[in-house]
Design goal:
This protein has 523 residues and is α+β, with helices and mostly antiparallel strands. The chain has 16 helices and 19 strands. Among the domains are: 11-87 and 124-151, Rossmann fold, CATH 3.40.50; 199-395, Valyl/Leucyl/Isoleucyl-tRNA synthetase, editing domain (Isoleucyl-tRNA Synthetase, domain 2). The chain has helices spanning 11-25, 27-33, 56-74, 90-99, 105-111, 113-123, 128-138, 153-168, 191-195, 267-271, 284-287, 332-340, 371-380, 420-427, 441-447, 480-486; strands at residues 82-85, 143-149, 172-182, 187-188, 198-211, 221-226, 237-240, 246-251, 258-263, 276-281, 308-311, 324-326, 384-395, 405-414, 452-453, 466-468, 474-476, 493-494, 497-498. The longest helix is centred in the first third of the chain and has 19 residues, at 56-74.
Length: 523
């Protein structure tokens, strides 16, 4: 009834035989063309980088993608599958930096953006043959002949078109916000990128002392706890919560009889086995507004009204001492306090993570690596109450593994919060596998979704199609034709080829419709 089966069949040979049959008979192409004109099933595939070799994770993802597209093809849908290559961004830049032995942004600029980007361009298709060989060997059906690459002008132009649609809906804005930045790459990262790099690390935590200089509590030292001692030179305020009970405590913990101010409910954790005596309840009305002695002398001569105690409802007693040290240039709550108090932020660390020259004791040193030295200098000056190592989760750059810094800088944002409820409703309509993703990982992400920081201070990528004049006027471009219209027919050229990348796109200038100037708009 059935043909006999060879009990010693070689499955690899059988696979090669099947692959050969598909290739010889154009089976994949025929399966797609046979359904042309029917309802289309669109599959959005995040393309891989071809500047590195594939690994197990790519094999697994490719198998799943192939299964999904075959399923919908078998359901009768028209399912074209074009292969793509991701060619832009930090993964490419980082590999080239390693190859050229560059240590960061400064050396790239010294080398020349054009030379660096050319090196990136030459690297992105390095392993395409190896990728194609693997994908074919997997039995995955994709169209290599009509594939795309994200560095193609046509692809970049499609990004411009999408961006302009978002721009027209007034969902794009530029703002000065605290964001996680990678000091090595010298660029902000999106919230999604930040979540990919959390690691459990051991860091130094410090409880510093802030002697009150005036009023009813003159001579008392307010305690404040931080897990980022490198931010202490940028301290501008102390924050207490009016809903928390504070006390004045007398103790000789530091070897000298002193009075300290902290939250009453944190006494046991703060003093542990050290004797202390509660002197009185703190009247916050008398404490608020009082000035204290700054930890460091670097900015004490500023004309701003800083180094004083303020109220803030975000202060908690879950850890620390119930008092928060405020460095407005390095955190969202902190910055909000600085904005509320209408002060100029002290940014004592640059985007490359180095202390500025004014911080004379640590100038030119990497801030995150100076926590112990900051503590030691404070201890030498009698300003450390206690310190200890803590184990906590801390974000690192998903590409170069550098510890991130929470840093106030400017960026272009998309108003994700405007469509957050709409996305949440749509999420409930999705058939998730596994099911728990809907309310779990993805649902939780949607709940905490924030506006998306889309701009990067880097070199090899699709430029955001915004031209910003020195007067503040902005123009958003939707296509290459639009660009030529506003620029008087000028297009960015690399030799005799159109190229939308830096540095060629930066050479396109045109008169501002608002002020008429043409002096170096920023693209």
């Amino acid at each position: 009834m059935f043909e006999s089966v060879n009990p010693k069949q070689s499955f690899p040979d059988l696979e090669h035989e099947m692959l050969g049959f598909w290739k010889e008979n154009n089976t994949f192409e025929k399966s797609v063309l046979a359904r042309k004109g029917r309802k289309k099933y669109v599959f959005f595939d995040g393309p891989p980088f071809a500047n590195g070799l594939p690994h197990y994770g790519h094999i697994l993802a490719s198998s799943l993608k192939d299964a999904v597209t075959r399923y919908w093809t078998m359901k009768g849908y028209y399912v074209p599958r074009e292969n793509g290559w991701d060619c832009h961004g930090l993964p490419v830049e980082y590999e080239i930096e390693k190859e050229l032995k560059l240590t960061g942004r400064k050396q790239i600029v010294e080398m020349g953006v054009e030379k660096f980007n050319n090196a990136c361009r030459e690297s992105v298709f390095r392993y395409t043959k190896e990728w194609e060989k693997l994908i074919v060997r997997l039995g995955r059906w994709v169209d290599f002949e009509n594939g795309y690459a994200t560095l193609d002008n046509s692809y970049m132009e499609s990004i411009w078109w999408v961006f302009k649609k978002i721009w027209d809906r007034k969902m794009v804005y530029k703002s000065y916000k605290p964001m996680h930045i990678c000091p090595r790459c010298e660029t902000p990262l999106s919230n999604f990128e930040v979540t990919q790099g959390y690691k459990d690390v051991t860091d130094l935590s410090v409880t510093a002392t802030f002697p009150i200089k005036e009023g009813a509590y003159e001579g008392c030292e307010v305690l404040a706890w931080t897990t980022t001692p490198w931010t202490l030179p940028g301290n501008m305020f102390l924050a207490v919560n009016p809903d928390i009970e504070y006390v004045v405590v007398r103790s000789a913990m530091s070897g000298e009889d002193k009075k300290y101010i902290l939250a009453k409910c944190r006494l046991a954790q703060t003093f542990k086995d050290v004797p202390f005596e509660i002197e009185e309840e703190v009247d916050l009305e008398k404490l608020l507004g009082c000035h204290y002695e700054p930890l460091f002398p670097y900015f004490k001569n500023t004309k701003e009204d800083i180094y004083r105690v303020l109220a803030a409802n975000f202060v908690t007693t879950e850890d620390g001492v119930g008092v928060v040290h405020i460095a407005p240039a390095y955190g969202e709550d902190d910055m909000n306090v600085g904005v509320r108090e209408k002060v100029t932020l002290i940014q004592h660390v640059k985007m490359d993570g180095m202390f500025i020259p004014e911080v004379v004791d640590f100038a030119g040193k990497f801030a995150k690596g100076q926590d112990v030295n900051v503590k030691d200098l404070l201890a030498k000056n009698g300003r450390v109450f206690s310190f200890e190592n803590i184990r906590h989760s801390y974000p690192h750059c998903w590409r170069c593994d550098t510890p991130l810094l929470n840093f106030v800088t400017d960026s272009w944002f998309i108003r994700v919060t405007d469509i957050k409820e709409h996305m949440t409703r749509n999420n409930k309509k999705i058939h998730w596998q596994p099911e728990h993703i809907q309310e779990g990982r993805f649902g939780k992400w949607l709940e905490g979704a924030r506006d998306w920081a889309i701009s990067r201070n880097r070199f090899w990528g699709c430029p955001i199609p915004i031209w910003e004049c020195v007067c503040g006027e902005t123009v958003c471009i939707a296509s290459i034709d639009d660009l030529k219209k506003v620029s008087g027919g000028v297009a960015p050229m690399r030799g005799d080829q159109l190229d939308l990348h830096k540095p060629y796109i930066d050479e396109i200038h045109f008169p501002c419709e608002k002020c008429g100037k043409t002096d170096e708009p920023n693209s």
